[in-house]
Design brief:
alpha+beta; Metal Transport, Frataxin, Chain A; 6-stranded antiparallel β-sheet; 31% helix; disordered N terminus; ferric iron binding; Iron-sulfur cluster assembly protein CyaY; CyaY; iron; Frataxin/CyaY_sf
Length: 120
């Protein structure tokens, strides 16, 4: 892995945003594929450009959407909507500072009915 650059959201260029945000979607897809291969849980994924939809066995959804003009990631889960900005080398919730993958893991676990952990 390469070096992690610590920067505030104010210094993230458009190219850096696209690189970081696209990597998030790729990590999520890879984890969901690994769970399917290991027969842990069958979550359907549908990706259209910067939008990734996760459909759980109970038909509930989590939607991750890139917001390039704002340099944010948006997540819509059963519990509500969340916005994340790149700060200090992490995607952090704009309201409470929680880390994106921890938040995604919590909502996926709740909606999937079992412990599911996404790693940054």
């Amino acid at each position: 892995m390469g070096d992690v650059f610590i920067m505030s959201s104010h210094t993230l260029s458009d190219a850096q945003y696209h690189s970081q945000a696209s990597a998030v979607l790729a990590r999520i897809e890879a984890q969901v594929d690994a769970w399917l291969e290991a027969d842990i849980i069958d979550i359907d994924t549908h990706r259209t450009g910067g939008l990734l939809e996760l459909v759980f066995p109970n038909a509930s959804k989590i939607i991750i959407n890139l917001q390039p003009p704002l340099h944010e990631l948006w997540m819509a889960a059963k519990a509500g909507g969340f916005h994340f900005h790149w700060r200090n080398g992490l995607w952090q919730d704009t309201r409470d500072g929680s880390e994106f993958f921890a938040c995604l893991s919590a909502h996926a676990s709740q909606q999937g009915g079992q412990a599911l952990t996404f790693q940054p």
